[in-house]
Amino acid sequence: MCCFSQRPVWLRIIAMSVVPVDSIPSLNSDLFYDILRRLDGPTLASAACTCAAFCSISKEESLWENVCSSVWPATNREDIKSLISSMGGFRKFYADCFPLIVNKEVADYQEKNFLEYPDDWTEAEYYGDMNEFESLSPSDFVSIVDIRFKDKAICSKVQWGVGVPNANGYDGWFYNCPFRIDLLTYRDDDNNDGVVTLSVSDGLPPITSMERERKDGKLWQELFDGLQLSWIMVNRKMKQAANLASWRPLGGQRHWPTDNDFVIRFGSVLPATDILPSQVVECILIMKFRVVNTEEDGVGTKVKLTELSMQLEDMEGAHVNGRNSLLILKEALSCRRSKNYSEVLESCHLYSKVQSELKEEKMRNESRLDRLCILSGIAAFMTFWYCVL
Hints:
The chain is α+β, with helices and mostly antiparallel strands. It is built from 15 helices and twelve strands. The protein has helices at 2-5, 9-17, 29-36, 41-47, 52-57, 61-71, 78-86, 90-97, 123-127, 130-134, 173-176, 210-216, 218-226, 322-332, 341-388; strands at residues 100-101, 141-149, 152-160, 181-182, 197-199, 227-235, 240-243, 251-254, 261-271, 280-293, 302-314, 337-338. The strands form three sheets. Strands 4, 5, 8, 9, 10 and 11 form a six-stranded antiparallel beta sheet that branches. Strands 3-2-6-7 form a four-stranded antiparallel beta sheet, with helices on both faces. A hairpin with a 6-residue loop joins strand 8 (251-254) and strand 9 (261-271). The radius of gyration is 26 Å and the shape is globular. The relative contact order is 0.12. InterPro entries: AT3G44326-like, F-box-like_dom_sf, F-box_dom. Pfam families: F-box-like. Residues 31-68 form the F-box domain.
């Protein structure tokens, strides 16, 4: 038994699978539990399909609570544990939030099928069912956010509600202004409490100067390859949850807006059917890091997280207002998801491709219009002088 316990987990499961079926019930259930509690979520779900004993024990909430806490450290908070329990438990929470959102309806987007300007829509067409919106409130939503760098948790944030607490009522400024969630509230002059930093000890490469970093980009590449983001949005009223992040970065920009800043973008494509003319929107999750020290400062390379935010943009790059954002988030919590990460990336890349094609088409149309205006002006000028002469 000692040798068996020292084997890798996957080998122990295989060994258990070859035990005669009639002898399985005689084995101690504590041994089964000890095996299952060491597994990650996907492996635990697979093990539950191997035999009736594993299937029964895998339904234990404590197993899935352990899995969730290892994937999302923010779920260790007592208030979040109570929230998850009220939604159906950790097993259901993991099943809802581990797969990522996939939306392939982007390919069906046709600009000609929708009115170009939202102002051309009637209020009923643009805002949809008023009764449905009146049942929504910013306080219904909870953000559960975890950041990892090289598989090590570096930051966990929880925000109850979106926007500001006093943004109630249809005429509130929150509903009419661009939607945005900012999870970081400290400033440069704040103390170090709650500030997220990364240094060489965390796996960052030492950089001698920003001039050198601009040439080789080693720090940027380490950040881009090592960062992982999970942004779970929960609707307390509907008892639904979904992960709005792409887990891995989708893109970014280095040395912007200053030489010391790095912007890294995550996100997903959300359905906006019957909510916006574009029918789909992009959920943009931004992490911004600032280089605080380099090796030439004599204190080692260090970067600080300065921004962690969410906003929604439609196909034309316009920010979605608070009211429509609540409706979109509500629909996103029940849309299709996938455990296939390549399928998730394909969905995001497809959105970027269609968006680029749309921008190019608009530029071509504007160019044609400019040429038409120029030709019309020349024709009018020549006609005028022809009549005068």
